[in-house]
Amino acid sequence: MTSNDFFQARVENTLSPMDYLQISKQQPEQFILVDVRNAPAHLKKVKISNAIEIPQNELENRISELPKDKTIVVYCWDVWCNLAAKSALILLKNGFSVKELSGGIAAWQATKLPVINL
Q1: Beta partners for residue 53, in sequence order
Q2: What span, in angstroms and rounded, lies between the C-alpha atoms of 66 and 89?
Q3: 8 within a domain of the structure (yes/no)
Q4: N or C: which end of the chain has fewer CB within 10 A?
Q5: How much is the pLDDT for 39?
Q6: Where would I find the beta strands (DSSP E) of 16-79?
Q7: Domain assignment present for 40
Q8: In terms of pLDDT, which residue wins out, 88 or 39?
Q9: Residue 41 reports pLDDT greater than 80
C-alpha cells in the first residue's frame, strides 16, 4: 500500500466531527451514530446527542438492532482507542456500510459539540 492509498482509504472511511455534522444535516436519514465504548455509564458520563449505545463487546450479539440501509458511524473514546476500528470490522464483515468518527468523543467535546449526560 502506498502512502497515497493509505490516506485515500483513511479519508474515505472516517469523518471528522465537523464533517459528520455537515453530512448528517444534509442527509439525516442516511446515518446512524453508534457509541461503541466498553464502560459503565458512570465512566462514560456523556455521549453524543442522538447516538445509540452498543458497546463493542456486545456488538456481535446486538448487530440486528442496526439497519443495513444506513451508514453506521462508530465512535469510541479518543485517537488512542481502537474500539471503533474493531467495531467497524465486525460491521463490515456483516455487510454494513461503516465510517469511523475521527477522535471519538474526545474530539467531539473538544469542539464543543452537543452531548447528553448519562
Answers
A1: 35
A2: 15
A3: no
A4: N
A5: 87
A6: 31-35, 46-48, 52-53, 71-75
A7: yes
A8: 88
A9: no
Start-to-end Cα distance in the chain: 42
Residues 6+ apart with CB under 8 A from 18: 111
Write out the residue range of the structural domain in which residue 102 sits: 14-117
| Nine cell digits for residue 41 | 455509564
Beta strand extents in 29-117 (DSSP E only): 31-35, 46-48, 52-53, 71-75, 97-101, 115-117
Q: Tell whether pTM > 0.70.
A: yes
Question: Hey, what's the cell of 11?
Answer: 479519508
Number of structural domains (the chain) is 1
Mention every residue, 6+ apart, whose C-beta is less than 8 A from residue 33: 20, 24, 48, 50, 51, 52, 73, 75, 101
Residue 4 lies in a domain: no
* Contact (Cβ atoms closer than 8 angstroms) between residue 48 and residue 76: no
d(CA 82, CA 67): 23
Which CATH number fits the domain that encloses residue 65?
A: 3.40.250.10
115 in Cβ contact with 75 (< 8 Å): no
